[in-house]
């Protein structure tokens, strides 16, 4: 059973997400929060697998709440940002804070459910609209070769980074590359260290900025 906390300052949004999630036999909404401070308190108490986090909330915003959750729980939950906003800076800030994924509130129900299940398995999920916006701002139009900060990565580490940027979990990467899951975890840790980042989300942003990963076409 996937345990979920919903954090959003709009009651109707919380109710709508709860209806979508609780209709599924493998998902249980264990609590709700109406602001960022309450979100941190509720998550510390309930220790869910996944948190659906709005960005713009009273007291502290979703990005700061996410950042705090990364430090107060071990292991931290997967934080899936669900919001109406997808400004490039907000996307990068949420990912840098430790968010596992980023969806828009008007995403289809099936996409929200798939994102929750994927996040629970360790996958990274970016809404296609968010991905295109992020890449358009981060990747130079004429980018053809990765810049120097990828030069330190081995060929295997580049493969792993590409798959991480596609939203694959460690288990899925292990299956794709015929490696053990522990080996993949080691590769991911080395990639983060060499890129000078702390989270998979930051590594994904770096992969886009370097032109290592190309956007999927709309539709």
TrEMBL record:
<dbReference type="InterPro" id="IPR016032">
    <property type="entry name" value="Sig_transdc_resp-reg_C-effctor"/>
</dbReference>
<dbReference type="GO" id="GO:0003677">
    <property type="term" value="F:DNA binding"/>
</dbReference>
<feature type="modified residue" description="4-aspartylphosphate">
    <location>
        <position position="54"/>
    </location>
</feature>
<dbReference type="InterPro" id="IPR001789">
    <property type="entry name" value="Sig_transdc_resp-reg_receiver"/>
</dbReference>
<dbReference type="InterPro" id="IPR058245">
    <property type="entry name" value="NreC/VraR/RcsB-like_REC"/>
</dbReference>
<feature type="domain" description="HTH luxR-type">
    <location>
        <begin position="146"/>
        <end position="211"/>
    </location>
</feature>
<dbReference type="Pfam" id="PF00196">
    <property type="entry name" value="GerE"/>
</dbReference>
<dbReference type="GO" id="GO:0006355">
    <property type="term" value="P:regulation of DNA-templated transcription"/>
</dbReference>
<dbReference type="InterPro" id="IPR000792">
    <property type="entry name" value="Tscrpt_reg_LuxR_C"/>
</dbReference>
<dbReference type="Pfam" id="PF00072">
    <property type="entry name" value="Response_reg"/>
</dbReference>
<keyword id="KW-0805">Transcription regulation</keyword>
<keyword id="KW-0804">Transcription</keyword>
<dbReference type="InterPro" id="IPR039420">
    <property type="entry name" value="WalR-like"/>
</dbReference>
<dbReference type="InterPro" id="IPR011006">
    <property type="entry name" value="CheY-like_superfamily"/>
</dbReference>
<feature type="domain" description="Response regulatory">
    <location>
        <begin position="3"/>
        <end position="120"/>
    </location>
</feature>
<dbReference type="GO" id="GO:0000160">
    <property type="term" value="P:phosphorelay signal transduction system"/>
</dbReference>
<keyword id="KW-0238">DNA-binding</keyword>
<protein>
    <submittedName>
        <fullName>DNA-binding response regulator</fullName>
    </submittedName>
</protein>
<keyword id="KW-0597">Phosphoprotein</keyword>
